[in-house]
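Progress report, Aim 2. The chain analyzed during this reporting quarter is listed below.
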Amino acid sequence: MTILGTAALGTAMGGSPSHDSSEDAFSCTFKCHDANGEFYTVSMKRDSMTVSNYEADAIVTAIETWADTLPILA
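Predicted structure tokens for the chain:
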């Protein structure tokens, strides 16, 4: 990270800067349009994925099937 590598900031703050990535958080939200014409939302966080605003259960099945093909999500 740029901030951790800034010597002037390290000197001003005193000590040795460190970064604990276990506390990092991120999220993203996708507004999706299915081939059947339905709109739905997929939200992803570090440890979860939420599908909302859907009517057809086939959409959730398709997303779960896709997620199972990715080792990090399986």
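The CA atoms of residues 11 and 46 lie 33 Å apart. The longest strand covers residues 27-33. These observations will guide the mutagenesis work planned for the next reporting period.
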